[in-house]
Amino acid sequence: MRIDVLTLFPEFIAQAAAVGVVGRALERGRMAVKGWNPRDHATGNYRRVDERPFGGGPGMVMLSEPLEACLAGARADGATGPLIYLSPQGPRLTQAKARSLAATAGFVLLCGRYEGVDERFIAANVDEELSIGDYVLSGGELGAAVVIDAVGRLLDGVLNDAASAIEDSFEDGLLDCPHFTRSERLGTAGVPGVLLSGDHTRIARWRRQQALGRTWLRRPDLLARMVLGRKDRQLLEEFIAGQASAAGNP
Ligand code: 9D3
User: Fold this and answer.
1) Is 137 in the pocket of ligand 1 (CB under 6 A)?
2) Greatest C-alpha distance within the chain
3) For the chain, what percentages of helix, strand and coil (3-state, to nearest 5) are there?
4) Which pLDDT score, from 0 to 100, does residue 170 have?
5) CATH number of the domain within which 82 lies
């Protein structure tokens, strides 16, 4: 997979993609991330990449020409796939979207700065937009880093354990169960007994129940969109009954 990023801060993207499982994907050649700076394609003494907006108002807008030249440079180098503009106006990135992007040969990310990009560049070049959530960032670079991380970790051979991808939150629509590990200082204090039982059927059942219960407690919106099987419904009912009795409501 090849990801090209048009950004005024290519060094930020390179740093963000260099660590952890995604860094390993790069090392192993499963993925290539290349930054392209519109500044390098700006002309004139000042190499301007921004200009005041028509109609006035505060803030600056990214100029079309340096972006056109930058994109052409990336394409000439082999940049492939749709041009995706990171923007608060886009639909939110989902795990399903990360999965579908991970199944492609590549894509190009456009990071805006200032108030955004001249709408004519967007109309002529952008295939889709993606937001990473409902909060205000100062530019698209963190969004691009989020997309690269979410997609990169899904590439074959990136994760240590393929099962850990499948068991992820959102892959099956549920939050994760709690985790505990051996600790010199803490010993087994506070560790649910079932996890020490060695009974892998009971352990799997407990983990599923915790995932269902936590989702019910913390993200009822996720649960509302799911259709639970008979076994899951039973596990969740048992969890809810346990909550009620813990709270002293019989
Ligand atoms: C205060 C600025 N805003 C005026 C109403 C508009 C605005 C312009 C540029 C808001 C944010 C940005 C920069 N944001 C991004 O480039 C961005 C972003 C985001 O802000 N939130 C969530 N996802 C993304 S992806 C790119």
Assistant:
1) yes
2) 77
3) 45, 10, 45
4) 61
5) 3.40.1280.10
